[in-house]
Amino acid sequence: MSGTRPDPTPADDEVRMEVHDPDPAGADAARVAADRAIADQALIDDVPDEAVVEPRPVRQRDPDEPALLDVRGLKTHFHTRSGVVQAVDGVDLSVQRGEVLGVVGESGCGKSVTALSIMGLVPYPGKVEAGTVTFDDQDLTGLSNRQMSRLRGDRLSMIFQQPGSALNPVHRAGRQIEEVYELHRDYDDEEQTRRAADMLRQVGIPDPERRARAYPHELSGGMAQRVMIAMALACQPDLLIADEPTTALDVTIQAQILDLMRDLVAESGTAVVLITHDLGVVAEMADRVAVMYAGQVVEEADVITLFEDPKHPYTRGLIGSMPVLGDRREALETIPGVVPNLVDPPVGCRFADRCHARVEHDLSICTEQDPELLPVVETDGDAHVVRCFLHHDAEGRPRAVEGGSTPADVVTAPAELAPGEGP
Amino acid sequence: MIAYAVKRILTAIPVLFGVVVVVFLLPRVVLGDPCRAVLGPRATEASCEQFAAANGLDDPIWEQFTRFVGDVLTFDLGESIKFSRPVTEVLLDRLPLTIELALSALLLAIVVGVPLGIAAARWHNSPVDIGTMAFANVGVSMPIFWLGLMLSYLFAVVLGDTFLALPPTGRFSPGLTPEPFYEVWGWTVSDSGFWSGLLEFLSKFAVFNAVISAQWAGAWDAIRHLILPTIALATIPMAIIARMTRSSLLDVLGRDYVRTAAAKGARDARVVRRHALRNALLPVVTIIGLQLGLLLGGAVLTETVFVLPGIGTALFDAITTRDYPIVQGFTLVIASTYVVVNLVVDLSYGYLDPRVRLQ
Question: Residue B347 contacts by C-beta under 8 Å, 6 or more apart in sequence?
Answer without folding.
Answer: B4, B5, B8
